[in-house]
Write a structure and sequence with these properties.
This protein is an all-beta fold. The protein has no helices and 3 strands. The chain has a domain of 34 residues. The structure holds zinc ion.
Length: 50
Amino acid sequence: MACSAGGPMEITILDVDEEDTKCNDCGKKFRRPKRKARCPECGSENLGAL
Ligand SMILES: [Zn+2]
């Protein structure tokens, strides 16, 4: 029964979209996917960590 309207609402937005990978070909920064990482911009696998 957590339906109390009017109460203080705590909304925590965690920034989980931190970019930790950089494409060495085009310089695009993005968050590394779990699977085989590829640059979303140019499709290169030539990636480096930030
Ligand atoms: Zn790229």
